[in-house]
Write a structure and sequence with these properties.
This protein is an alpha/beta fold and 459 residues long. Helix content is 34%, strand content 26%. Helix 1 crosses helix 7 and helix 6 packs across helix 10. The longest helix has 16 residues.
Length: 459
């Protein structure tokens, strides 16, 4: 029996799902462009290409008719203008299985979700598993990694679940499907269900979604459907202790965890920590400026162990982990050091955490704070941030559009405003006696901000 299939949201992967699904179905196809992203010409193009009918708001407002006569597919975070029969995550699972059968691939999919640290942890997992052929999708890029070499396949993809389909199709066009051992994917607001390994980094903020009808923690609960699930123990204890399955729990300090750190000795040039696994401590020496960077390493090690590595093999691979530009990375300029925290998801909590961690390394440091608006669904709470900055009682340089607004709300004596980020860095390096400058900036590092430190004079 032919069905009416309604796919929603051209802004978060709906068109990708439409394109892929059209190859497998004879059902009647409908689409609701909830954010009015598409022009009339674009709608006409897609209508002709997929034989799809676009519904408008008046059609959707008759929700009783829609709910009775259509099977609906919508993002988990979309406001509840209709009942969702399947989320984008669930429908992507269906399409991935179709793709798997069509092209006969059998590699494992490792998915990473969470409020923070997704990009960093996906890259670390790639480095831990660098003896294998890896397809990596995160907010920086889609890349194929083999023999410790990387080929960037695309740098425009989002981390919506539908991007997993796009990544698989790009891999197929490049004749890579039969070469891949693991596909590591960063996914927003949960994972596609029932794959090999699901990683939940944290629930630092359980923010509301879907017009306050759902929370981030509820959306991410699907991670526990995977064959193996790795989760921050503190998040598990707070939100998911009703989950009835064995979960690999990671923590910095909780001794009831599968992996945890027994000590931390963090330095700018040389850090060490103790890694406890099976009641045995392993000494680790590596790059790590912050405790949450150590926690990210523990997640990567947990994935390595879940993929069959021994603890000794995983321990050795820690030295292969490379810092990611903008994610607690640092650069030396003469005798000065610039620590970069450049991330589109920075909020007040993560800014506090960054400053607290740098304070442990060097109490006399410069702060450059700022960035962009409109780069994530979650905007920053400026009132909370202003109150925090005032509590620091120290000189701060603010920059970018965010810095412009902060300057208006802060005492002039404590604030230096320089719009251009590179100019702000050069000013701090040239005019401050402090050795360390920490840059905390809301942006996409690779796509919007490229710190051109070559233009900064070597003082």
């Amino acid at each position: 029996m032919t069905k009416n299939i309604l796919i929603c949201d051209a802004n978060h992967g709906g068109l990708t799902l439409l394109d892929e699904y059209s190859q497998y179905t004879s059902n009647n196809l409908f689409f609701y462009d909830i954010y009015n992203k598409l022009s009339d010409d674009e709608k006409e193009y897609y209508s002709n290409r997929y034989d799809v009918t676009f519904l408008d708001k008046e059609d959707i407002d008759d929700s009783e008719y829609i709910n009775e006569n259509y099977t609906t597919i919508a993002p988990v975070h979309m406001k509840p203008v209709i009942d969702k029969d399947y989320t984008h995550h669930e429908f992507t699972e269906y399409l991935v299985n179709k793709h798997r059968k069509r092209y006969l691939w059998d590699f494992k999919i490792i998915q990473v979700t969470g409020v923070k640290a997704k990009t960093t942890i996906t890259s670390m997992i790639r480095d831990i598993l660098n003896d294998y052929n890896i397809l990596l999708l995160n907010s920086n890029e889609l890349s194929y990694n083999s023999n410790k070499k990387k080929v960037i396949l695309d740098d425009t993809l989002s981390i919506t679940p539908a991007s997993i389909i796009t990544a698989l199709n790009i891999a197929q066009k490049n004749n890579l499907l039969d070469k891949i051992d693991y596909f590591i994917a960063e996914v927003s607001l949960g994972v596609i269900p029932n794959e090999s390994i699901g990683v939940l980094t944290n629930i630092l903020e359980d923010y509301p979604i879907a017009d306050n009808t759902l929370t981030a923690s509820a959306a991410k609960k699907g991670v526990f459907s995977c064959d193996k699930t790795i989760c921050l123990k503190e998040s598990y204890d707070k939100y998911y202790n009703d989950v009835n399955k064995d979960v690999i729990k990671i923590s910095l300090h909780d001794r009831k965890s599968f992996l945890y750190a027994t000590r931390l000795d963090l330095k700018i040039n040389d850090s060490s920590f103790g890694l406890n696994y099976n009641n045995r401590e392993y000494d680790i020496n590596c790059f790590a400026l912050t405790d949450f960077y150590v926690l990210n390493i523990l997640f990567a090690v947990g994935v390595g162990l879940s993929c069959g590595m021994s603890i000794d093999e995983a321990k050795e691979k820690i030295n292969d982990i490379k810092s990611i530009d903008g994610r607690t990375s640092y650069k030396k300029i003469g005798e000065k050091i610039v620590i970069e925290e450049i991330n589109p998801g920075l909020n007040t909590s993560s800014i506090k955490k960054s400053i607290d961690n740098i304070r442990k390394l060097d109490k006399n440091f410069n702060i450059i704070l700022g960035g962009d608006y409109g780069i994530t669904c979650e905007e920053i709470d400026e009132i909370e941030l202003v109150n925090y900055i005032m509590s620091l009682d120290r000189q701060i340089t603010v920059t970018g559009e965010l810095g412009k607004n902060l300057k208006k709300q802060l005492p002039k004596d404590n604030i230096t405003y320089i719009y251009d980020l590179n100019a702000a860095i050069e000013n701090c390096i040239k005019n401050s006696k402090s050795t360390v400058t920490v840059v905390i900036y809301r942006s996409e590092y690779a796509k919007k901000i490229k710190l051109n430190l070559d233009t900064v004079s070597d003082f």
